[in-house]
Amino acid sequence: MGEGCDSRAGGIGRAESECGDLCELRVWLRDATIERCEFRVRGCTNTFAAAAAAAAFAQGRTTGEALGLHAPDLLSRIGNLPPGTEHVTELAVRALHEAVLDAFRNRREPWRAAYRTDPPDPTPTKA
After folding, report:
1. Could you tell me the fold of the domain covering 11-111?
2. What are the domain boundaries of the chain?
3. pLDDT digit string, tens, across residues 35-86
4. Rounded Cα distance, 28 and 82, in Å
């Protein structure tokens, strides 16, 4: 854990698809930089790959760069996904954007984070 980074994420973003896949990303910020990004998933290996790629992309980037990430960009970073599974990149990007926006809200209104109950882990084991 980085210096000045507490154990609770600065922002949490969750996105769920119609097929039931769930992607959660958590970000810790230092100024405008994402110092740490973790993910949790409930779904197929394609969902896992998309979440891992989104978290890897975000780590060390500015919040602006993270918010500028789009599903086609993430898909090109992952490489080939089986036909019909490309929606997992949209899921991961949506979760990342939500996490960054949640971190902004928590900075603007610090009381929100104090009363937040972190959502339960979507899978029995952490990714």
Report:
1. Sufe protein. Chain: A (3.90.1010)
2. 11-111
3. 999 999 999 999 999 999 999 999 999 999 999 999 999 999 998 899 999 9
4. 32
